[in-house]
Write a structure and sequence with these properties.
- About 40% of the residues lie in helices and about 20% in strands.
- With about 475 residues, it is of the alpha+beta class.
- The strands form five sheets. The chain has a five-stranded mixed sheet. The protein has a five-stranded mixed sheet with strand order 14-13-12-17-18, with helices on one face.
């Protein structure tokens, strides 16, 4: 299967070209005149404009500056945001013509054999895909149950895919010294070698599929030339990175960390590539909603940013990262929960770590939080269901308005642990006031919203966190089954 290659939406943003020398790209668009056209490249989900030009009355314009462009896939876009593409490699003086009525279908180049090959490849690929679609339609129309017929159609599809791969490989080898070769190499499918399976193995096919998957997983990026930062200026690189981390490998933090390090190590072949891939993964996992992915963020921060390896990071940026991940690292999955020694609503003190339980639900909440009003009654129902199996619920009120807390408890006299960080006293003016006892619970558990729920085992290790009560019940049920 070919790796994904997507054309992304066109947006106009600013960007700069680079280095010395000069580019000069003459453009002719028949059927369009007296109009501003835009020249730029894609990176992730955005398009960056590096130059503009105005078509004259005959549809001619020139993009030219005393700077060399960085390699990549570039576009020429019209005012209505239609566009055609071209490759920018080392030779940056050539001309291109097309027709406004069919921008991509009528493109012709002079002085750029690399782009001639690029468009010939795209024509070949469209034709091959058309043949494949035709086979799929005939396969769909074939009578159900005719296994021989289905097998014949599948062989035809497999043959088309193999022919595409052979064509790409030949073209990549021919263009090994330019950017087209870099792009096509990355499109090549990594094939697992034939594996010898011992006769004593019962499920040979299953083992063969597993070993083939493991090989393709470990060699997924073998054909990527990371020394060529031109890949950054395409939609292709990021599409494959995201596909790999979302679809190819499991979503467990340890697995992600292993393959993130492997990919970043390869990216060190080029400074810009190293920065780009490291930053992308770091930002991506900060936004992840999957439980436990904060461990990936902490690892990347420690290994690349706080170690100084990310030389592009300013002191301020590193300081902000350090402050953020230090809050995250204390409550990572698998860690023993930080101790909380807090006053209760009965004005006694309770220790989280010294409260015996087979499982502990630690819930940070406040009575005026709309989501808390829905989730706490659900947590109470769950508690009643599992309390006889060793479940303890330890709630922490996150605010300092004792009357609000007392009123909620009076209306909801749940017999679980009600604790808070406050203590009542008298301020410097002699008036009653509430003070924090300084438990630092927000930093210890990275609390920025309520409710925030943690599940601890009998050794107070964090086994799940930041989930709904519905998700909590599923996890708790599975954990209890494992303990039987």
């Amino acid at each position: 299967m070919l790796k994904p290659f997507f054309l992304l939406p066109f947006l106009l943003l600013s960007a700069t070209a680079a280095q010395a020398q000069q580019y000069e790209i003459r453009v002719r668009i028949d059927g369009l005149r007296d109009s501003t056209i835009y020249f730029g490249y894609r990176c992730e989900d955005k398009s960056y404009v590096v130059d503009t030009a105005t078509l004259d009355k005959k549809g001619n314009a020139v993009f030219s500056k005393n700077k060399a462009l960085k390699r990549g896939v570039y576009f020429v876009a019209t005012p209505d945001k239609n566009y055609f593409e071209m490759l920018i490699s080392d030779k940056q003086k050539f001309s291109v013509s097309t027709q406004y009525a069919d921008l991509t279908g009528k493109v012709k180049f002079k002085g750029s054999p690399e782009n001639d090959e690029f468009y010939a490849y795209q024509h070949y690929l469209r034709e091959a895909r058309r043949r494949a679609d035709d086979v799929k339609q005939r396969q769909k129309r074939s009578e159900e149950g005719k296994k021989d017929s289905v097998a014949i159609y599948q062989k035809q599809l497999d043959d088309i895919e193999r022919s595409i791969d052979r064509h790409i490989k030949t073209l990549a080898e021919k263009n090994a010294d330019n950017f087209l070769g870099t792009l096509l190499s990355a499109m090549l499918t990594v094939e697992a070698p034939e594996l010898e399976i011992p006769e004593t193995i019962a499920n040979k096919d299953s083992l063969r599929r597993l070993r083939a998957y493991e090989y393709r997983r470990d060699h997924y990026f073998d054909n990527f030339k990371f020394a060529d930062d031109g890949l950054i200026r395409t939609p292709f690189l990021i599409a494959n990175i995201d596909f790999f981390f979302q679809k190819v490998i499991p979503l467990s933090p340890d697995t992600i960390i292993k393959y993130a390090d492997m990919l970043i190590a390869r990216s060190r072949a080029n400074d810009e590539m190293f920065r780009y891939i490291t930053e992308h993964l770091f930002q991506y996992y900060q936004k992840s909603d999957y439980m436990g992915h904060d461990a990936v963020v902490v690892h990347l921060a420690d290994k690349y940013y706080l170690s100084g390896a990310a030389t592009w990071a300013s002191e301020k940026y590193r300081s902000e990262i350090k402050e953020r991940v230090n809050k995250m690292r204390r409550s990572l999955l698998g860690n023993v929960a930080p101790e909380l020694l807090l006053p209760t609503n009965e004005n006694t003190y309770v220790s989280l770590l010294k409260t015996p339980a087979e499982f502990t639900v630690l819930c940070f909440w406040e009575p005026n939080c709309g989501h808390c009003k829905k989730e706490l009654p659900r947590l109470w129902s769950l508690y009643q269901k599992y309390r006889d199996k060793g479940l303890v619920v330890f709630t922490v009120y996150t605010q300092y308005k004792r009357p609000d807390w007392d009123a909620y408890i009076a209306d909801h006299p749940y017999d679980w642990i009600y604790a808070w960080d406050g203590v009542e006293g008298v301020n410097s003016n002699g008036k009653p006031a509430t003070f924090s006892i300084g438990s630092n619970f927000r930093a210890l558990y990275d609390i920025s919203s309520t409710p925030t729920v943690f599940l601890l085992d009998n050794k107070k290790r964090i086994i799940a966190k930041r989930m709904s009560v519905e998700a909590l019940e599923k996890i708790l049920s599975e954990e209890m089954k494992r303990k039987k």
